[in-house]
Amino acid sequence: MIGKLYIFDLVTDRSIEWLVVRDLQDGESYVQVVPCDDTPLIGCCDVAVCHDRALEGQAKMFARCGVSLWCGMSDLFSHRMTAVGDVSSEELSNVRKRLAEIARGIIPVSTPDDDDLEYIELCGELDKLGLFLSNGKI
Questions:
Q1: How many domains does the chain have?
Q2: Domain with 71 in it
């Protein structure tokens, strides 16, 4: 699952894919997922992924690392999910580095440059979708 992109049966008007970044075995299995979309708004926590799609004429995607979450596998499997692709090992590494920078406080979750109203709404919607994906266990 690591490095794979999935879509889930979540109600949204946006095209959201969820990147599985890492897993954790601690009694129950958990995975860290990051929502990815093709909205061309970029904040300090975002990482461009799926460069191969851009070469094929499709929109590049952005991993929204500021709204990542840990989700139990049982919660993920309670949704209809479809694998739709994967990211390169370099892109996965870049996402993991950004998540580590956020966790260490090197990069803030938001900056004044991220104050665009449309970007704030996007991140708020992704937060809510993550809540649904994890069945309220964020």
A1: 1
A2: 4-133
Check whether 121 has a pLDDT greater than 80: yes
Rg of the chain over all Cα atoms, to the nearest angstrom: 14
- pTM to 2 decimal places: 0.86
Q: What are phi and psi of 95, to 5 degrees?
A: -65, -45
Please check whether residue 138 lies inside any domain of the structure: no
- pLDDT tens profile 37-82: 988 888 889 999 986 765 566 668 999 999 999 998 888 888 899 9
Measured distance CA(68)–CA(19) in Å, rounded: 9
Q: Which two tokens stand for residue 60?
A: 């590049």
**Which DSSP string corresponds to 53-67?**
HHHTTSPPEEEEGGG
